[in-house]
Design brief:
Layout (H helix, E strand, L loop, with lengths): L2 H4 L22 H4 L8 H4 L3 E3 L5 E3 L5 E2 L2 H11 L28 E3 L13 E2 L21 H8 L13
Antiparallel strand pairs: 1-2, 2-3, 4-5
Length: about 170
């Protein structure tokens, strides 16, 4: 049974949350943060989901938080290494990848981004050993022609495209 499910049965002891609430849970945070899905980072730092109405997150010190505002306040109060961007409030969000049990023989590229992104992007092909065509992987938006370049570099807030309404 995963550790985050076990935490749901433990009771919260009332206290003033501070950095001590997260320091042990985040002991190996920096080494993990580039290796897993960012939405899984809280669970790797002893957070858990409380499946109730409303749905909430349980902190490493077992406090239950029901909104992103409460989570953000907790992260600030405890000086956590986690970002609010690692938390979601949608009940339909999948935390596990769709390809949970894959055969590693079908990985044709280990990391599509070649280390440019924080999370490894493997490429799977279970039909043949073909790989994607050559391309340049970028992490920032780049203009592709002179009109886009001009709009991209324009600091005037009224700039727009050269389209005409009909």
């Amino acid at each position: 049974m995963p550790k985050f499910r076990l935490l749901n049965v433990l009771s919260y002891v009332v206290h003033k949350c501070d950095h001590q609430c997260v320091v042990k849970a985040e002991e190996y945070f920096l080494s993990k943060q580039t290796q897993i899905n960012p939405f899984l980072l809280p669970f790797d730092c002893n957070w858990s989901i409380v499946d109730s109405k409303p749905r909430g997150y349980r902190t490493p010190c077992l406090r239950t938080l029901y909104s992103l505002d409460e989570i953000e306040q907790y992260l600030y109060q405890t000086q956590s290494n986690l970002s609010i961007k690692c938390f979601i409030d949608g009940v339909l969000t999948r935390f596990k990848p769709l390809l949970d049990n894959y055969d590693p023989q079908f990985v044709v590229i280990d990391d599509l981004s070649n280390g440019l992104d924080n999370v490894r992007i493997p490429v799977f092909n279970d039909l043949d050993r073909d790989t994607p065509d050559k391309f340049t992987y970028i992490t920032k938006i780049r203009p592709i022609d002179h009109r886009l370049a001009a709009a991209f570099n324009d600091t005037n807030t009224t700039s727009c495209c050269d389209c005409t309404d009909k």
